[in-house]
Amino acid sequence: MAGLEVLYTCVAGSLTSPQDALVCFVHWEMIKSGYRCIGSGDEPCSGDRKSELLPADWSSNKELYSLRYEAVDSDAKVLLKAIAVDSALIFNLMNCSTQQVADLTVNVKDHVNADHLDTFDRVFINGESLSEKVKAQLLPPREKLTEKKAGRKSLREEEDEAEGRRRREEHDPLHIPSRHPSTGTQHPWLENANPQPDTVVPPFAAGGADLDPFGSRGGGGMIVDPLRSGRPRSGFDPSSGIPDILPPGAVPPGARFDPFGPVGRHRPGPDPGHLPPPDYDDMFM
Fold this sequence. Notes:
By secondary structure, the chain is of the alpha+beta class. It has eight helices and five strands; from the N terminus they run ααβββββαααααα. It starts with a helix and ends in a 74-residue tail after the last helix.
């Protein structure tokens, strides 16, 4: 409860009842939660200013205490009232903007020693327990105040933050660029990858060269085609035919052709039937 002793000492001359001491305690919890007192009473005054101290006339009415507060980091205002009912003090905290009200009832004898109002070390009973009650039941959560502050960011601030992130990414050597395709020059095989709306894409527009046996699209079905490797080719041309195997024109010009056997009739090496089985005279046996 750092700071409460200093506050209590400052108002010690006006403490005349246990209720005064309890209001002083709750006031300090308001200060710790990010509020400052701007005056007493229900209506604002021209001389209102934020202060951690209690106003001069804060305890003039022992039946009804009324204090106004404003947040340090925003313009949110709240009104705190404490009503004395028998041996209890009922606290009401109202948000002036939303009219939302939180309340807390405290039994004065449970937390204030009326016989030691002039001794700070002995006046409060179970101060930690009282502080938890005030935070849990009366004060607005701090995260809500932070969210409200964050929600007031202007459009200009958001644009500045976005621009700052973009510049940091451009100068960050470890930044991984976006996977979206660039708008620069595309390779030929990407021309039909992203057609414009209402564009009719012909069949086999992508990968059609691999399915075209005539090679009219500029490529064959092989990834590495020996007939289109760019290196000098031998005089063999399948479109002219293979003697005794394929007639001329059986293979269209420029089409992919995979030889199904050695080219030419006179093949080197032994004949496949040079070692027939013993007594072999019937090829159908």
